[in-house]
Design a protein that fits this description.
210 residues, alpha/beta, TIM Barrel, two-stranded antiparallel ribbon, globular
């Protein structure tokens, strides 16, 4: 099971995730987020260390030049687009870095996931499915959507499962079955405060999959 811990705001905690062999670390560049890291971790800190963990920059409706600058400054391995970005932006960006396109899933069980992702199929590397919330939240709601919606969809691209996943959900995650389920994405349920992770809980979650 691949694990992504999102909302890292401390360089020390990034190092701790590396030591735990976590696969992906999410660094949020959206300034309205309580987990915005742009003024807390410098690009030099990250680029001076040879990390195995994949550094994922999380953006909401960014400009292309903003993305290129962040990729260069922080040595990002992947960019996660969590807003209303167009397929054209994803395609342009995919020439520079791997791309995760995030989709916010509402409570409407009639939603067609395959129709939702169709325009992005050829222009990104991964999908991420998160819980829809207030517009300004863009994720981080701490709530789960009905994962059964995904089971009905073909999807046909590796995807991250996100939205309100906590330590008590380890068994539920292990039981979730879809041929394209690639990784679980955790955030607010593993925090002592916004942006400060509870590393003991992350370790317990990791051990649950061994």
């Amino acid at each position: 099971m691949n694990i992504k811990v999102c909302g890292i705001t401390q360089f020390k905690q990034l190092q701790q995730l590396e030591a735990l062999n976590i696969d992906y670390a999410g660094l949020i560049f959206y300034k309205e987020s309580p987990r915005y890291m742009g003024d807390k971790i410098t690009g030099k800190q990250i680029k001076d260390v040879d990390f195995d963990i994949k550094k994922v920059g999380v953006f909401v409706d960014p400009g292309y030049s903003e993305l290129l600058e962040a990729i260069d400054e922080y040595g990002l391995d992947i960019v996660q687009l969590h807003g209303n970005e167009t397929p054209e932006l994803c395609e342009e960006l995919s020439a520079e870095v791997e791309v995760i396109k995030a989709f916010r899933i509402p409570g409407d069980k009639s939603i067609d996931i395959d129709e939702m992702v169709a325009d992005y199929d050829a222009v990104c590397d991964f999908y991420l499915f998160d819980t829809a919330g207030l517009k300004e939240s863009f994720g981080g709601t701490g709530q789960q959507f009905d994962w059964g919606i995904l089971k009905k969809a073909k999807i046909e691209k590796p995807f991250f499962l996100s939205g309100g996943i906590g330590l008590d959900d380890a068994a539920k995650v292990k039981a979730f079955n879809h041929p394209d389920f690639f990784a679980v994405d955790v955030n607010s349920k593993f925090e002592l405060s916004p942006g400060l992770k509870d590393m003991a809980s992350i370790l317990k979650f990791l051990q649950a999959f061994k």
